[in-house]
Amino acid sequence: MGGIAPASPVSLDTPNNSLGAADPYGRLRLWREIAEVDFGKDLRIPLRLEFSSAFQSESQYAGRNWHIPLFEARAFLKREKMLQATLVCGKTMFLARSRPQPGTYISLNKEWTGAVNGDTITISREDGWEVQYKNGLISQLRTDTGRIITWNRSGAQLADIREAGNVVLRLQPPNNGSRECVINDKVFVMGYEKRPLVESINGKNLISGFEAALSSLTWPDGGKELYSFEVQTTPPLTLTPAIKITDKNGATEQYTWNAATQSIISDGKWTYDIGAVTAEFGLPRVTRKNAAGATEFISVNNTKGTVELSTLDTGHTITSSFTSPGPLYGKMRKQEYLMKDGTRVQRLGIVYDELGRKLRETDAEGFTFVYERDKEGKILSRRMLPTTNEKVLKAFEAKERELTQAVTAAKTDYGRQAAVKALCFFYIMKMRLPDKTLSLVSQIKNKSLLFDIKLFAVNHDHNLSYIAKVEGYKKLLGEFPEHKDKLQWLITQSQQMIEAGL
Questions:
Q1: pLDDT band for position 93 (50/70/90)?
Q2: What phi and psi values does residue 468 have, to the nearest 5 degrees?
């Protein structure tokens, strides 16, 4: 597969929305996390629900506007030169037909290739991951370690998902308005009720009928989530579709959308305004406002590779990414803060090699992280170069002096412990010098606090490889056996990163 880029580790994370409950096109999109299907030996695949105002076709398992990627991930030729595939996590991928090899389709980042053979579509990566779709529906998944997961169907209906003959997920036929899904021998129940369908016909929103749709999901422990479809009447007598979701804790959120454009209108706390698309393959500006009058927005320019985002939590940022097809496609080049006076301050800058592998990244305070790799691209080491930003260094010096004086001035043992804690976390989190805590930890008498500081020192030592972090966690395990569960989890996570070549 010449010209294919080394692939980043496969991620099964939930696909990102654009802003709040709006997808990149300004349509309502919601994700509900249901369970992880455990195949053993560290292979877990998420079962999640997707609700989208853009889906006008009907899910076989949940009804119109719903999609369950694990059950019904699809692949098809969107047009002659473009292949579209949905993965089990819910992410959608587009692969363009290769000019040198007309029977081959390649993703824009060149990590995936696709091929069509009769009623079977196959997409794959050089590291061994492969997904097959038969008659448009997912039928087999092969992992990078050679494990093979198969989807067995009765016609188009899913019957079960298994590995080497072992059924891990089984879907029962519908029965009296409900349906059981057995995952790792635990029973989940999907409930159904009729819902009104609001459609725009000749410029008017009308209730065109009623259809069965997913209305509840019950977990094995009895927890239950409810999905209620409603029709609101807004001036001047316009029918607006809405979905109200009540989670397992009883918290309720309501979402509305425009039946004609599929654009989101509100998500309970926010009202949305979706701008026009002004360029081919462009995306609309998405703006939302809350009851207090505060606004947030996102504006994406695919041609320039920029995303301008302003939120209450993150402030105003501009992120620039590579736009040319190839290994660098979609990777971030830099992120900047846009200040009130219009000036830009760099928050993060990243340098890659020609294969799209990260070499250096520099943060807002001037700390630079350098990655050294072997011939296969696996990270051998990561080291941090200290900042040379004089303004930052002077601020650090002043803060260190203030915190050191607080330790000296403390009148009580409790006050001294608190001051030492603050100084330790300053060294670890801000100055990035965890070794400076070594002379201070002997003053910490509280064992729980001592554990927190030592753990932070390992977690945030940017010069430690994941192999070194594992050794650090094992050392802490010997000193603090009461924290076995937490430390063992960290060891497992670090070992997974090592296996992924990070």
A1: very high
A2: -65, -35
Q: How is residue 142 written in tokens?
A: 């092969």
Nearest residue to 244 via CA among 484, 471, 30? 30
The pLDDT tens digits of the residues spanning 127-136 come to 889 999 999 9
Closest CA to 364 of 339, 347, 349: 347
- 79 strand-pairing partners: 82
CA–CA separation, 238 and 232 (whole Å) = 8
Q: How far is the CA of 31 from the CAs of 50, 60, 66, 68, 358, in angstroms?
A: 5, 18, 10, 10, 31
Average confidence (pLDDT) over 236-242: 85
Nearest to 408 by CA among 430, 423, 395: 423
Instruction: Find, among 186, 252, 244, the residue nearest to 47 by Cα.
Output: 186
- Alpha-carbon distance of 107 to 94, in angstroms, equals 6
**Average pLDDT score, the chain:** 91
Amino acid at 310: S
The span from the first CA to the last CA of the chain, in angstroms, equals: 24
- Asked whether the bond before 325 is cis by omega within 30 degrees of 0, the reply is no
Quick check: 89 and 46 in contact, CB under 8 A? yes
Using alpha carbons, select from 330, 336, 359 the residue that is nearest to residue 348.
336
Strand-by-strand arrangement of the 44-52 sheet: 29-38, 44-52, 66-67
Residue 125 contacts residue 111 (beta carbons within 8 Å)? yes
Kindly report, residue by residue over 386-441, the tens digit of the pLDDT: 999 999 999 999 999 999 999 999 888 888 888 989 999 899 889 988 888 888 88
What is the value of pTM for the model shown?
A: 0.79
Find the range with the poorest average confidence among 6-10, 50-54, 127-131, 157-161: 6-10
In 3-state terms, the chain is what percent helix, strand and coil (to 5)?
20, 45, 35
- CA distances from residue 392 to 242, 349, 366, 457 in whole angstroms, order as listed: 50, 17, 8, 21
Q: 72, 24, 37, 31: which is closest to 50 by C-alpha?
A: 31
The closest alpha carbon to 362, from 382, 381, 348, belongs to 348
